[in-house]
């Protein structure tokens, strides 16, 4: 048996290839939209991608299952569980086979048994893998967003992200009963989940890539909790705020993601790059994302652009802040980032409406603006004179653990929808923990016409280091 884990750091997302080296057949589970990686891996191992499947309708990234099946000429297998509201809208036209609890299929000599494990979502499947030439006992289980290393899938996303009212508690109870099936598996079965640390699909995911059923029974709070009422209360407490784009991901993945049909490099090569179009794009209301580092952006920017630096947080903040119903232009300094990589990251969350790319030459001959910066002591002095309004753009949990006195909390992901709450008669100072999110927030406000904005360098950590007063609540 051939087995390979693919991991996308930006999405904290894992996908898997399972192959039978004797017959040359291979299956991919939970692919993301960067399908070239699976095609290349199969070619290197001299395997044919014959089947593609996924554990559930994903909410945090656009599935690559349809794209990969099309590109590889593979057969698509999708869940039929969960009732009519959770059926794939494109399954019939794609010629997909629908899977349910108790089904099994073969990948060469590898048997895949299908378990319906709802709770995170109603249609969720897990896949029990048996290498039949080696043993009739299962080798491992691909759990998707059902069981993670150290945590379990959150059952509140349907209500909090997708708008399905009164589903959280029912989902938690369903998840509890699904976990009874998991605990019944042999302790030696390996556990390979769909996400790792950093994903918003749980609250305490481990960074270790895999585990075993036996270890999770010992160390995973969700698996080890056998009282239903305690589990329901615990699993719903302390879940992070789900990104606003999760609802869009659910819709796209249910209805069928568009097939791109080409690599990110090919798409980048054919997009126009005329710097003169920038002003027209801004006037037309398009979103122009400046991907340069925050410090570089602050020293010289084009008014109306949104700064989301191309780093490990780029994909998440793009999903939070970039509208899905507008054209997108990119400013990419090729000395810092590659345009194809930026396109690839945006496509993983369905931001496909990129219609132009500008390079560093877009700044030539322009009068550039700047974002004023102030350190903690300077901000404290401004606050003493009531000369500014400070906004904390960290998450609610960070704010509750300690914040500047009398400073309101508007998390960065919610800032655009709450601009009306900002004062019009004094400058707005933005701060986060270290300065990264507040820099993005400053560009967001400027792009929405709020020009009198100051970024507090060093963030809350710098405020604490300066020994300035902190309120804890």
Features:
Metallo-beta-lactamase, Chain A, alpha/beta, 3 domains, six-stranded mixed sheet, globular, 22 strands, 473 residues, 29% helix, Oxidized Rhodanese, domain 1
Concise structural overview:
With 473 residues, the protein is an alpha/beta fold.
Question: Could you please describe the fold and organization of this structure?
Answer:
The chain has helices at residues 36-44, 65-72, 157-160, 168-183, 213-219, 221-224, 228-236, 246-255, 264-270, 277-283, 294-299, 314-321, 339-348, 376-384, 396-401, 436-447, 459-465, and strands at residues 2-8, 13-20, 25-29, 48-53, 75-79, 97-99, 104-107, 110-116, 125-131, 140-144, 147-148, 151-152, 190-193, 211-212, 287-290, 306-307, 328-331, 354-358, 373-374, 389-392, 428-431, 453-456. The strands form 5 sheets. Strands 1-2-3-4-5-6 form a 6-stranded mixed beta sheet, covered by helices on one side. A 6-stranded mixed beta sheet has the order 7-8-9-10-13-14. With 473 residues, the chain is of the alpha/beta class. It is 29% helix and 20% strand. The protein has 3 domains: 2-254, 4-Layer Sandwich (Metallo-beta-lactamase, Chain A); 262-363, 3-Layer(aba) Sandwich (Oxidized Rhodanese, domain 1); 373-465, Rhodanese-like domain (Oxidized Rhodanese, domain 1, 3-Layer(aba) Sandwich), CATH 3.40.250.10. The protein is globular. α4 crosses α7 (228-236).
């Amino acid at each position: 048996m051939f087995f390979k884990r693919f991991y996308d750091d930006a999405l904290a997302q894992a996908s898997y290839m399972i192959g039978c080296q004797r017959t040359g057949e291979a299956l991919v589970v939970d692919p993301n939209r960067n399908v070239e990686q699976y095609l290349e891996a199969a070619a290197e191992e001299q395997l044919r991608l014959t089947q593609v499947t996924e554990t559930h309708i994903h909410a945090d990234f656009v599935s690559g299952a349809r794209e990969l099946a099309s590109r590889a000429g593979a057969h698509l297998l999708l869940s039929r569980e969960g009732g009519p509201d959770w059926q794939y809208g494109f399954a019939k036209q794609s010629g997909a086979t629908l899977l349910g609890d108790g089904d099994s299929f073969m990948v060469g000599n590898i048997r895949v048994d299908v378990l319906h494990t709802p709770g995170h979502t109603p249609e969720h499947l897990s896949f029990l893998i048996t290498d039949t030439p080696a043993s009739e006992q299962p080798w491992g289980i691909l759990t998707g967003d059902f069981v993670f290393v150290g945590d379990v899938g959150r059952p509140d996303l349907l209500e909090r992200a997708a708008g399905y009212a009164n589903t959280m508690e029912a989902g938690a109870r369903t998840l509890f009963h699904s976990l009874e099936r998991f605990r019944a598996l042999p302790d030696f079965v390996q556990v390979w989940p769909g996400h790792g640390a950093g994903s918003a699909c749980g609250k305490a995911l481990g960074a270790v890539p895999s585990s075993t059923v036996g270890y999770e029974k010992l160390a995973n709070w969700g698996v080890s909790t056998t009282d239903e009422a305690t589990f329901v209360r615990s699993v719903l407490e302390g879940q992070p705020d789900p990104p606003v784009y999760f609802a869009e991901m659910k819709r796209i993945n249910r209805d069928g993601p568009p097939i791109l049909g080409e690599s990110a490099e090919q798409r980048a090569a054919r997009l126009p790059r005329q710097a003169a179009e920038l002003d027209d794009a801004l006037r037309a209301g398009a979103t122009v994302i400046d991907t340069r580092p925050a410090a570089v952006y602050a020293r010289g920017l084009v008014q109306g652009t949104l700064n989301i630096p191309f780093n490990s947080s780029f994909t998440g903040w793009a999903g939070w802040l970039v509208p899905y119903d507008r054209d997108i232009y990119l400013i990419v300094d090729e000395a810092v980032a590659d345009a194809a990589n930026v396109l690839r990251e945006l496509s993983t969350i369905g931001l496909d409406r990129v219609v132009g790319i500008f390079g560093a030459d877009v700044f030539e001959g322009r009068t550039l603006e700047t974002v004023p910066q102030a350190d903690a002591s300077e901000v404290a002095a401004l606050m003493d004179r009531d000369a500014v309004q400070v906004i904390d753009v960290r998450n609610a949990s960070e704010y509750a653990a300690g914040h500047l006195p009398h400073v309101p909390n508007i998390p960065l992901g919610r800032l655009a929808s709450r601009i009306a709450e900002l004062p019009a008669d004094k400058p707005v100072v933005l701060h986060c923990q270290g300065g990264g999110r507040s820099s993005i927030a400053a560009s967001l406000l400027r792009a929405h016409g709020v020009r009198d904005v100051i970024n507090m360098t060093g963030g809350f950590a710098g405020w604490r280091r300066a020994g300035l007063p902190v309120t804890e609540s």
